[in-house]
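Annex B. Sample input.
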Amino acid sequence: MAGNASTRASSVVLPLAVLLLVAGGALQAFVPAPGAASSLRGAEPAAAAVAYGALAAAMPAPAQAFSETELNQFGLAFSIFFLGFWIAGFFRLLTVGKL
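Annex B, continued. Sample output.
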């Protein structure tokens, strides 16, 4: 039971951190008004890029979310659909009479 609670808590932390970084970065994404004093203009975007890169590296890739069985089932359904589409196209080719 304790493992489920810690997993649930850790699964909430990453999306919350992403939202906070996006909200914080969105406020600093606009160009400051003319005459605004900014000593290091390139420091903030570089830090934001590092933070976004670290978050992207921490998140799992979408392709890792599917099992081999699920991919095989999708391939089977896709091949049946493609075969039907190909047969319909071939039938159309033969019935038009403009070979």
